[in-house]
Specification:
single chain; 198 residues; mainly alpha; two-stranded antiparallel sheet; 6 helices; 69% helix
């Protein structure tokens, strides 16, 4: 049995809620989210679904199907960008084998390879929880590294086969990650549009 303080709290909350008019002649109940709308509304004020016109309901369903297809494509773009980040992290982790070389800078190379590998693994993992921010950060980092790589050896970048290959690899990685950023942004927009507040 409810105590008096619980009953008074429920009554206070109930007083703040809008009065629900359940008279069918004065209310239109949404078939999608069961929200009670006023009778003169054409669309549900909660989820945007048409409450009266069945032709509009068909158009709405087609729009939802289109948005679902766009969402699938955007999620695939994010997944490809995430896999590229994991591959980059794995490739850079191979730099630890420089410890076995006789170079005087082997410890700096190993440290940089470990840091960059960890950073790309972290960004790939972070993109599972917050894809837009993680992929945008990755894109900015890749632009900086690509610019340093291309402009650091400007004459070699455009004249040698190795320089051209490196430049095309950098541009390809930038393109894939940029598509992932666009996909993550679209995911946020589409999910916000499709979300039903119950």
């Amino acid at each position: 049995m409810l105590k008096e303080k619980h009953i008074s709290a429920i009554q206070k909350i109930n007083a703040l809620l809008p009065a629900a008019n359940l008279n069918k002649s004065q209310a239109a109940i949404c078939m999608r989210c069961n929200y009670i709308n006023e009778n003169d509304y054409t669309f549900c004020t909660n989820c945007g679904y048409p409450v009266k016109n069945f032709q509009l309901a068909e158009i709405y369903q087609k729009r939802i199907q289109q948005r679902t297809v766009f969402l699938f494509k955007a999620e695939n773009a994010v997944l490809v960008a995430r896999v590229v980040l994991y591959v980059m992290g794995a490739f850079l982790s191979l730099g630890i084998f420089f410890i076995f070389t006789r170079s005087s800078q082997k410890y700096i190379i190993v440290l940089m390879a470990a840091l960059l590998s960890g950073m790309f693994f972290f960004l790939a993992f972070w993109s599972q929880k917050n894809p837009f921010t993680a992929l945008l950060t990755s894109f900015i980092i890749l632009i900086v590294f690509s610019a340093v790589n291309i402009f650091g050896r400007l004459s070699e970048s455009f004249t040698t086969l190795q320089g051209l290959t490196g430049m095309f690899i950098c541009l390809g990685l930038l393109f894939i990650v940029l598509k992932g950023v666009q996909g993550a942004y679209r995911i946020n927009l589409i999910k916000e549009e499709l979300q039903v507040k119950l």
